[in-house]
Amino acid sequence: MKSDRKIPFLAGLSRRGLREWMSSEGQPGYRGEQVADWIFGRGVIQPEQMTNLPASLRLLLQARFHAPGSSVAEVSSSEDGTEKLLIELFDGESVEMVLIPSEERLTFCLSTQVGCPVQCRFCASGRDGLVRNLSAGEIIEEFLLGSERAGRRPDNLVFMGIGEGLLNYNELVKALVLLSSPDEFGMSPRRITVSTSGYVPGILKFAELEREFNLAISLHAPDDATRSKLIPPPFCYPVAEIMAAADRYRELAGRMVTLEYTLLKGVNDSIPTARKLAALARSHHAKVNLIPYNATDTEFQRPERRVIEAFARTVEEEGAHVTVRVERGAESTAACGQLRRQEG
Ligand code: SAH
Ligand code: SF4
């Protein structure tokens, strides 16, 4: 595998980019279309498999691009059908992604960074801080490797793996555009969800895109005192600023925002807290998604089942729309917050 950081990723190019690259190499434009059909139509990124290209052009593509740069190094399966893929990147770093089948649909959970700079105290992904950003091409390769493994494209994509995507804004948005443009992968933006730890400048910028992607904001607490125990500075934004940014997102993107809430025993799981959360969600027309804490090696604990149920019931009775995330993939440590990069 090539380890040069300057080499671009074939998977990071648009249809137009492929055409332009071909013409810069003195190739006819239809060669770009042919490659685009392999990538976007069939999910094939390896030039050696592009059988309608001349051998010399296949070799040229191989020499100039990572195609691909990443590979699946390991698969861990859970009894519930969830599969976690350890993806080795061109430079020896790694990320994880998760394939989550249900009766009706297949969801991929994708990573956006190697490690995470936010370092929420209950999350394994951020333990070592940020190592590096993924490029758009590497994010697309995750999508393609997952599709290859599943034998089909996903119905839904959630950016809830490793990393704070809005702190890797340009590459994430480039990947989102490729995934959702009719000329490229053509997924509906309504089937793609970006999750953020509440990075306000990123949310505001994302709103300005005015595209119908779903936004999930990891709020975890309806008040600043509790929130600041969970997310360290400088990325712990005030609840009021986060909610104002959420309103802006709803107005400009035209999508209801989801508030994610990791339930932690004795920290944010009381009934008065549930009431405050419901009031906040209602006044900002947001949905609530409760994620009972999944074990990682932190000091936190998951609340007992009856506490989780009482919390959810209270939020609902107070008039907010609430769902509790069913734990998937816990045996293979593929559940929320358990994904990590592998130490080399
Ligand atoms: N960085 C983004 C997306 C990845 S984390 C974000 O923070 O939103 C996806 C979700 O998993 C977030 O809501 C996060 O708070 C939650 N999470 C992290 N660690 C967890 C854990 N140990 N148990 C349960 N949920 C966790
Ligand atoms: Fe990063 Fe999200 Fe984990 Fe926080 S919860 S450390 S933002 S991946």
Structural class designation: alpha/beta
Beta-strand content estimate: 15-25%
Fraction in helix: 25-40%
Low-confidence stretches: none
Task: Note the main sheet.
Answer: 10 strands, mixed
CATH superfamily of the largest domain: Aldolase class I
Q: What would your notes on this structure say?
A:
Strand 2 (83-88) and strand 3 (94-101) form a beta hairpin. The strands form two sheets. A ten-stranded mixed beta sheet has the order 1-2-3-4-7-8-9-10-11-12, with helices on one face. The chain has a two-stranded antiparallel ribbon with strand order 5-6. Helices cover 34% and strands 18% of the residues. The protein is elongated. The protein has helices at residues 15-24, 29-42, 55-64, 136-150, 169-180, 200-208, 224-230, 239-253, 271-283, 305-317; strands spanning 71-77, 83-88, 94-101, 106-109, 113-115, 130-133, 156-159, 192-196, 214-218, 258-263, 287-292, 322-324. It has 344 residues and is an alpha/beta fold. The longest helix is centred in the middle third of the chain and has 15 residues, at 136-150. Helix 6 (200-208) packs parallel to helix 8 and helix 9 packs parallel to helix 10 (305-317). Bound molecules: S-adenosyl-L-homocysteine and iron/sulfur cluster. The site of S-adenosyl-L-homocysteine (SAH) has 17 residues, from strand 8 and strand 10. S-adenosyl-L-homocysteine binds next to strand 8 and strand 10.
